[in-house]
Design goal:
By secondary structure, this protein is mainly alpha-helical. 65% of the residues lie in helices and 0% in strands. It contains three helices and no strands. It starts with 9 loop residues before the first helix and ends with a helix.
């Protein structure tokens, strides 16, 4: 289920982008890398196309944790 886009400010998008970069960097420091599908979902959240609950739901589904 895709949540209708929600208008978010440029400042909020920047805050989200920094959060995603931090998560990705932490994952890489531990020797991993999120796959392209996970990164695409993270980018959708940054742009405000999905909310955080949907991001988590999709991540869990991708890992078989539904």
């Amino acid at each position: 289920m895709t949540v209708p886009p929600r208008a978010i400010s440029a400042a909020e998008q920047e805050r989200r982008r920094r959060q995603v970069e931090t998560v990705r960097a932490s994952t890489e420091l531990e020797g991993g890398r999120s796959d392209d599908e996970a990164r695409a979902e993270q980018d959708r959240w940054v742009r405000g196309e999905i909310d955080v609950d949907e991001l988590v739901r999709r991540a869990r589904a991708q890992c078989g944790l539904t």
